# Entry
Amino acid sequence: MIEAGIIKKNKGSPEEEDAVFEIRYMDEDNLDEMMALQEVIIQNLADKEIFRTHSIDYFKNLFQVEKAAIGAFTEEGLIACSVLKFPEEIEDNFGVDVNLPIDDLSRVVHIAKVAVHPAFRGNSLQRKLQGIHLEVAREMGCYHACCMVSPKNRHSLQNMFSHGFIIKALKLKFGSRLRYILHKNLLRPNMSVPDEIQILSSNIAGQICLLNQGFLGFRLELLRDDFEISYGRVQALRYLPEFQYSNHCMSSGRRSFVTLAAR
Ligand SMILES: CC(C)(COP(=O)(O)OP(=O)(O)OC[C@H]1O[C@@H](n2cnc3c(N)ncnc32)[C@H](O)[C@@H]1OP(=O)(O)O)[C@@H](O)C(=O)NCCC(=O)NCCS
# Structure
């Protein structure tokens, strides 16, 4: 067991009692529960495009690596998971998408899957499981963690940002799925950059334009019907402090001090 505690069910509804949970590493014995959780997750998603499902063989392969799968369990069984993938083929390595040095590609870990049962959302379980897994990855000798998130998946994106992941690319993956590719340097501390520009998450072309100009996305802010992503550009701002944003990508920007993870 890694950790235990009490969590709310159905956002603390008066009809539901709090539940005791335990976080444990998973192995092949948990594969059926993993498949059942995946099914509940996809069935309950209004927009199924944001979550990719996988075969039992896919998970079986990933579960071979010790500590690669973590589960949170209540007396109802598996209610949340985080699964790491250590990419073997270069074409599968997200480090390539975010232009990591070739020598570092063998030190990349993917957060391949993270999900929380709908009845137990709002207990910060994604953040908790990922925090454990990032530490595990560091101990295993990884330098970089990468993951993919749909631009429509505000909750997951917010949790990734809270762990210091930054958006480094936005592209179609797996055929037709639009995904941010996020990166976290597991070795270097964060550094400050003196600027910030906000753009709607639904403005895909504008964000691709910013990313192509070397901007990185690092925070989101909720609006009434949408959310904005904050982007900053380390080098341009360092060398050109009076740099004015061109309006190729968006119509307006705001300035303030921000922190970006080191490249
Ligand atoms: C993304 C996900 C793992 C986050 O779950 P979580 O760790 O429980 O989320 P948090 O504890 O950070 O939730 C923060 C708030 O957002 C709400 N929330 C979280 N996920 C939500 C969702 N999918 N739909 C609506 N609200 C959601 C929570 O209820 C909570 O609300 P509150 O502040 O009013 O209590 C979960 O939504 C999920 O499993 N989604 C489907 C699978 C998925 O998208 N995985 C990630 C793929 S990259």
Residues 11, 41, 50-51, 114-116, 121-126, 149, 153, 155-156, 159 surround coenzyme A (CB under 6 Å). The chain has a mean pLDDT of 89. The longest helix spans residues 125-139.
